[in-house]
Amino acid sequence: MKLKITLIVLLISSIAISQNYISINQSGVIATDVTDKKPANINVFSSWKTHANMIAYGGSSLKKTILNKKKREVNLLETQPKVDLVKQTYKDSEHYPNKIVDGWHSVIATDSYSYCCPAKVMIKNNEIKEFVLENWSRLSLPFNVLSAIKKGKGLISVEFEEETLTLELYFTNDLVQPSIVDKPLDSGFVSFWCDSKKIDDIKIFIEKRYYGQLGAAFSNQPECSANGTITIELKPAIYHFTAAGRGTINWEGDFEVKENLCLSYLLNKINKRD
Length: 274
Description:
By secondary structure, the chain is α+β, with helices and mostly antiparallel strands. The protein is built from 3 helices and 15 strands.
């Protein structure tokens, strides 16, 4: 019985050691765009398809939807009813604010055609100072104001590589009374690593998307984004991962990404899938 209890304690201890959160300074963490496109931020460099430190970030639904013309046409039947509902809700309102109070606000952003999604904006002196998609600060996009906020509605343009998109912003939550919301979520990170030279060729997949291959073995827990790890910047949430060694899935499970923390995730023989 004592032996059984000891084994259980050792197992729990090994799991705790293999997964723990590290406080980080995000300005010192280097991000990589896994789309292989030229980074928009000069602080982002690409080490994609190498064994160097890699941090990947997700793309926005705006970029995926608007710039893909074929997908835009397919989504039109689904999106147009949403656009009509937003416009009708705004039109039917019996009250429109004279100004939007300072702070973060939820808006509906739409091109009145194929895109209609929630966003967040920072307001100061009734002016839009920041535009963020998907409630994630990483997706704060540059924009130009085309029309000042009037009666709970604004107009901006967002620039992409190939075109400029005009978006109407509807402050539907602020039509009756001011509605301040929480700021967008900051990024979190997960850093996969291994401690055995015999464990090589480990490929990392998150939500079935390939992120790279481990490039080194560590005798001690490495820093977040150390060379040889696969370190990924993500929106705080729960994700599913698989790790395959030589074509076989050897590790699999869920992990939680937390704001401003890096989850250090050790892949070794102890937590290997049976």
